[in-house]
Specification:
It comes from Saccharomonospora xinjiangensis XJ-54. One of its GO terms (molecular function) is DNA binding. This is Site-specific recombinase XerD. A three-stranded antiparallel sheet has the order 1-2-3, with no helix packed on it. The protein has two domains: 154 residues, no CATH class; 150 residues, Intergrase catalytic core (hpI Integrase, Chain A). Helix 1 crosses helix 3, helix 2 crosses helix 4 and helix 11 crosses helix 15. Helices cover 58% and strands 3% of the residues. It is globular and about 85 Å long. By secondary structure, it is mainly alpha-helical. It contains 17 helices and three strands. Strand 1 and strand 2 form a beta hairpin.
Length: 372
């Protein structure tokens, strides 16, 4: 199933304009009208997820759905800024798919999305080769939004998402790969990828994904305000999962590329689209790593994603005998089993091959003894 998403969803500026009226910046009180509460929530979300995301939501969704999404994203159930930003992107993309696939407007999202529509979306996601984890994230966001609309806003909607039916379980594959088969590059391949970097942005992306081992969501969420230039090389503050912040010193080789890439910019996101000036998203980051893989001549370049660089970095550190606890902290994993899993999945192939080779050698020896 192939669906072409519209480049520019229908514009509905009234919701955003109303939500951002300067006169509504006062804190809400028990007697404050609902539209002024929406304005306060919108201003807080602007700080949390960025003006461009908020603007995209307002242009993609109708006024009612936009209002529901504002309060849903601002709920204390979503404390992580990465989660809020990811959910905002996910809902926009689902709404755009919904309009393109059904011929209806995104205004019908809450009252016309059915079980069968979600089934069609699941088939679309599978046709795109998205991982089970990615599919579940989108569906979890959609399900959470419907539950919030029904319980908190008393809207007469039913949740159309049934995760056991619509979402593949974690640990399965939808594109022929076995469970947990994150690709890990060999170091000569990583060196070829680094040599393929030609722009300041590409050098910077490589530094953040491989040398620093950041998640793609952490990379695209970086702001210039997170840079501490009092240190040389500069120190970067990174928001990790769970709202925890860590500080990372950039490499000496990456610093000139960062300076040239920012080109005097002193505020806003670090990575921006060269044409729109808006913050890069994770899909654009994937395009960058795939392009580098093509230029480096790597096999199956479409499978060289940002996560592949991070997984390769974690595995390479463990291969070098670095302490598991240190690598776990560096990777930002809550559990050491997650960190060890990268190394075990890669090395289990080599270990099992060695065991099989032992059996083959023993069998050959036994056959020779019989022949003698």
């Amino acid at each position: 199933m192939t669906t072409h998403l519209p480049d520019h969803p229908a514009t509905q500026p009234d919701a955003f304009t109303t939500a951002l009226e300067p006169a509504h910046r006062a804190l809400p009180s028990p007697g404050l009208p609902a539209h002024r509460v929406d304005a306060v929530v919108a201003h807080q979300l602007m700080a949390d997820i960025g003006a461009e995301r908020l603007d995209r939501l307002s242009r993609t969704l109708d006024r009612t759905t936009f209002g529901v999404v504002l309060h849903w994203l601002s709920s204390y159930q979503r404390r992580s800024l990465d989660t809020k930003r990811g959910y905002a992107d996910d809902i926009c993309r689902i709404a755009e798919w919904f309009a393109a696939a059904t011929g209806r407007t995104p205004a019908d999202l809450l009252n016309a999305m059915t079980f069968d529509t979600v089934t069609a979306w699941s088939l679309y996601a599978k046709s795109k080769g998205w991982s089970a984890r990615t599919q579940r994230r989108y569906l979890s966001a959609l399900s959470s939004l419907f539950d919030h609309a029904r319980r908190a806003h008393r809207l007469a909607v039913e949740n159309p998402v049934h995760l056991p039916t619509h979402a593949p379980p974690i640990g399965t594959s939808t594109n022929g790969r076995p469970p947990g088969a994150t690709r890990v590059l060999e170091l000569p391949e990583v060196a070829a990828l680094a040599s393929a970097c030609s722009s300041h942005e590409e050098h910077l992306v490589f530094e953040l994904l491989f040398t620093q081992g950041l998640r793609e969501s952490e990379v695209v969420s970086l702001d210039i305000d997170n840079l501490d230039h009092a240190h040389v090389p500069p120190v970067l503050s990174v928001a990790r999962k769970g709202g925890r912040w860590v500080r990372r010193r950039l490499g000496d080789a990456a610093t000139p590329h960062l300076t040239a890439y920012l080109d005097g910019r002193s505020t806003g996101p670090v990575l921006v689209h060269p044409e729109t000036g808006l913050r890069r998203d994770r899909h654009q980051l994937i395009s960058i790593t795939r392009r580098l893989a093509r230029h480096a001549g790597l096999r199956e370049p479409r499978k060289v994603t940002p996560h592949v660089l991070r997984a390769t970095a974690i595995t390479a550190l463990l291969d070098k005998g670095k302490p598991l606890q240190e690598v776990q902290e560096w990777a930002g994993h809550a559990n050491a089993s997650t960190t060890r899993g990268y190394w075990e999945r890669r090395n289990s192939v080599q270990r099992d091959a060695a065991l099989s080779a032992t059996l083959t050698a023993d069998l050959a020896q036994a056959a020779a003894d019989l022949a003698g």
